[in-house]
Amino acid sequence: MNTQRKYVRSLLQIAGLLIAWLSLSVACDPVELPQIGPSPMITFTDSLGETLLGLEGEASSSTSFTPHITAANGFQSLRYGIVSGQDSTFLEEILSEGTNDTLVSLLLSYTFQDSLAGLAAFLSFETTDQENQTTHTTLPVTTLIRELGAAPRIGIGDVEGEPISEISIKEQDTLSLTLTVEAVEGLASFLISEEIDGDSSQIYSYPDGSTEQDTLIVIHYQYVVPRVDEEQQIALRFFASDVEGQQDEASLTIHIKPLVPPTIVLQNAEGNPLTEIEGEALDWDTVYVEISSPEGYSRTDYWQITANDSSLIAYEWATGGGAVGIATALFYNFDPALVDHPAELHAWVTDKKGQIASASLDIITKERVPQVPVGSVTQNGSIVTEIEGNAGTTTNFTLSVTAREGYTAMEYGLLVEEAYTPINSFTRTDEAPVRSKNFELSYTFVDSLVDVDAQLRFIITDDVGQTTVELLDVVTNTPPRPVASFPSITLFAPSPFGDSKSFINVATGDTYEPNEISATPENSSLIDFGYVFTFSNNWSFASPLYWRNVVAINDVFVDISGWPVLNSTTFRSTSLSQAEFVAIGDNDGLALKSNYESGIDTPDQGLINDTEVGQVIAFQTAKGKHGLLHIIEINGTFQVDDNIVFALKVEE
Question: What is the residue-wise DSSP string for 256-322?
Answer without folding.
Answer: EEPPPPPEEEEE-TTSPBPSEEEEETT-EEEEEEEEE-TT-EEEEEEEEEESS-EEEEEEEE--STT
